[in-house]
Amino acid sequence: MDTRTLVGVDIGGTKCAVTLGLDCSGDLQIKDKLAFPTTDVDGTIDGIKDGIHKVLDRNSLSPKDIAAIGISCGGPLDSSKGVIMSPPNLPGWDNIHITGILEEEFGVKAAVHNDANACALAEWKFGAGKGTRNMVFLTFGTGLGAGLIIDGKLFAGTNDNAGELGHIRLESFGPVGYGKAGSFEGFCSGSGIAQLAVSMVKEKLQMGQKVDWCPDGDLGSITARTVAEAARNGDTLAKEVYSTSAKYLGKGLSIVIDILNPELIVIGSIYARNEDLLKPLMEEILSKEALPLANKVCRVVPAALGESIGDFAALSVAANI
Questions:
Q1: Which of 107, 170, 236, 306 has the most CB atoms less than 10 A away?
Q2: Helix 224-232 vs helix 236-260: crossing angle, to nearest 10
Q3: Dist. CA 167–CA 145, nearest whole Å
Q4: Are strands 68-73 and 110-114 parallel, antiparallel or unpaired?
Q5: Which residues lie closer than 8 Å to 310 by C-beta, 6 or more apart?
C-alpha cells in the first residue's frame, strides 16, 4: 500500500491550524491537529513553523518524513508562485511567498490554494466527488465561493479567479453579496439569507404583525440558522425565505450546468444542513432552466465531509502535489 505523510496548513483570519495526515492510496486519515490564533504576519508565520515542528515531534517524525505541505488560505493569491496577495481577512499579508518560506524551513514541496479550491480538492479526492472527472464545489457558507474540477484537474483560471460564481448577478435587485446586489452570493449564502429574512420580517413588523422567530423585533438576531429552524417548525414566512434562496440556487446552478456540463455539483455548509428546504424547488428550477441533456447527467449532492472539510482541505492541497 502506497502511504504518504502530509502536512496541511489552514490560514484563517482569526485562527490557524496545522494538520498531520496519511494518504493511504486515496484514503486520507487525519492523525493529529494543532490550532492557534492568527496574529500579525511574522508571528503567524512563526506559529505555523512551530506548529509543524510540534506536530512532527509528538508523532516521532522529522521533516524528511513529509511528502508535501498543503496550504489553504482565503484569496486573492497566486497559486502558481505560492504567493498570498492581501486577503481582506488577513491585514498585512501583502505578497507573502508562503510556499517558499515553508519549503526553505522544511525542505519539502509546498503548494497553496484558496479555501474554495482546497475544499473542492477535498471533496473530489476524498468526499462526495471521488471518482469524478468534472465536478463543481460550492461553499454556500457565509459567502458563496466555488472550486472547479475540469477533466480530472483543479482549474484555477489565468490568475486564480476561476470559480467566483458568487459574483454572477442573477437579478438587478436583491440582497447584496460579493459587493453586488442581486448576486448569486446575495441569494445563496448565510449573509444573503439573513438579508432576505430581515427584509421580509421588516415588512411584517411595519404592518404591525409579529414574527415568532424574531422576538421583540430584534432584526440583528436573524441568521440563516434561525430562519431554517423556524421553517422546519412550519413558519410560512421562514419557508418563503428559503424558497427564495432555493429558486435562485436553481437559476445559478443552471448557468453552471449549461456552461461547464459537470457530472456532479457538491454543495457544502448551509445546503448540506438544509437540503430538505432547498432541494425540491432547486430541482424544479433546474428542470426548467438548464439544458435537458446537461441536466440529465448532473447530480447535485451535499458535501460528504461535512464539518470536517476544513481539516481535509489543506491536506488535499498537499495530496494534489
A1: 170
A2: 110
A3: 9
A4: parallel
A5: 10, 17, 72, 119
Instruction: Fill in the amino acid letter for 229.
Output: E
Say which DSSP state 40 is in.
Answer: S
| Mean pLDDT over the full length of the chain | 95
Residue partners of 313: CB distance under 8 A and separation at least 6: 8, 10, 72, 115, 118, 119, 121, 122
Chain centroid to CA 36: how far? Answer: 21
C-alpha dihedral over 242, 225, 139, 314, to 10 degrees?
-170
Q: Which of 225, 305, 234 is nearest to 270 (CA)?
A: 225
Nearest Cα to 135, choosing from 155, 164, 115? 155
30 to each of 27, 174, 267, how far by Cα in Å? 10, 41, 22
188/206 Cα distance (integer angstroms): 26
pTM over 0.85: yes
Q: Give the dihedral sign, CA 295/114/304/167.
A: negative
Burial class (CB in 10 A: 0-12, 13-18, 19+), 283: middle
Angle, vertex CA 61, rays to CA 18 and CA 99, nearest 5: 45
Q: Which three cell numbers stand for residue 108?
A: 519539502
Q: Where are the alpha helices (DSSP H) in 3-114?
A: 41-57, 98-106
**Beta-strand pair 264-267/135-138:** parallel
Rounded Cα distance, 6 and 71, in Å: 11
Interval 272-292 mean pLDDT: 98
Cis peptide leading into residue 76 (ω within 30°): yes
Q: Which amino acid is at 240?
A: E
